[in-house]
UniProtKB/TrEMBL annotation:
Annotated protein name in UniProt: Mechanosensitive ion channel, M-S channel
Topology term for the membrane: Multi-pass membrane protein
InterPro entries cross-referenced by the UniProt entry: LSM_dom_sf, MS_channel_C, MscS_archaea/bacteria_type, MscS_beta-dom_sf, MscS_channel_2nd, MscS_channel_C_sf, MscS_channel_TM-2
Family statement drawn from the similarity comment of this UniProt entry: Belongs to the MscS (TC 1.A.23) family.
Sequence ranges assigned to domain Mechanosensitive ion channel MscS in this UniProt record: 103-169
Transmembrane segments: 16-41, 62-80, 86-115
A Gene Ontology term for the protein's cellular component: plasma membrane
Main subcellular location: membrane
Top-rank taxon: Archaea
Organism encoding this protein: Hyperthermus butylicus (strain DSM 5456 / JCM 9403 / PLM1-5)
Ranges for domain Mechanosensitive ion channel MscS C-terminal: 178-259
Amino acid sequence: MAAESLAALLETVGSYIYKIVVFSVVMVAGIAVSMLIRRMIRRTLEFSQFPHTVVDIASKMVYYLLVALAGVIALGVAGFDVTGFAFAGSLIGVALGFASQTVASNFFSGLFLYFDKPLKPGDMVELPDLGIMGVVEDITLFSTRITTLDGLKVRIPNESIFRSVIKNLYSHQARRVEYLVGISYSSDIDVARETIFRILEDHPWVLAEPKPVVYVEELGDSAVVLRVIFWTPSTKWLRVRWELLEKIKKALDEAGVEIPFPQRVVWLRLPEAGAASLGVSGRIGGEGLLAETGEGA
């Protein structure tokens, strides 16, 4: 009996030692393959000029997933029962899937943003769907940080940005600026045009090519509407737009070109005797009713 028990014990110990050796060999091979794949992914992402943080996180995630898979495979090859591991792993996977759905969505949205490259740090962007406009400060795998024009730092999930319309104001080197300038019908169109051209030519950030254009857009109810078109570097667009509109207004005032307010001429019908004695004529402008009366008023 003692010999049989000793033989059974040795057989059991030998079986476990065999399983441990097989598990170790398969596990070492799995780790080696995981490290090789990790290096390949890392080099591929670095060659694609992904940021260092993105490369590091992505390569580590792939590496640990492959090591975990290698562990399960090694247990199965060594003869261990992996049914319980598979069941527990499936439950954990389902739970993590529901819990990390938003995280995964932001992660993949971040990858798509890196591949598509609709924006990058330093760009001035507008997100109309989110009501945000500002300068991109940083883009990570899960979120993007933008400093708005009023100085607020906003962290936006990548999923929201990926689904939004993105207007990159710096995507091209030059951007067009347009104004509509109304002048009175009594003002000289040529004088107004020459004055505006002079202001545009004197500004250092107005491009010579494409050439600025000033033309009559419309004969409005109260004004002759001129459309002013010129180009400026995208990085200076907002500043130039603000500056030149003020300078054009001041220059037109100095040149004697009137920029009228909306006005209407109103004729007052009075009894003939009263009209003859009063001699009333009136006009309604931006200040209200202006009336002139004769000597009998």
